[in-house]
Input
Amino acid sequence: MKKKKKQQEEATSSAEEPASEKKGKKEKQKKPARFIDFVAFFGLMISALLLVVGPILRKWNPQLANGLGLIAQYSMLLAIALPAYAFVRNKGLGWKVFYLVCLLIYFTGTILGLTINAE
Output
């Protein structure tokens, strides 16, 4: 009788340990997603704020407004690029190259757009 109880206790304790380990792994997987979500939200918030404040400041200091517009564009890039990379991370090489090409186009477009607007 005692042997059966010990066997049952060992079976339940061994069955509980992998469940707790699995739970720990799930929590570890959720943390990077939460960080990416936080950074994306923060980038969106900064971009929205600067897109509202920039045109107001344009009356007094056009160069400052252009700089804030550039920061707003890069904040939006941050809000979009991190979740996009999370999507591309497990894809093939072609997807990663296309992602990098799109980032380069965005960077050059914002810089060229700023210099064209400054003239």
Remarks:
- Residues 14-118 form one domain.
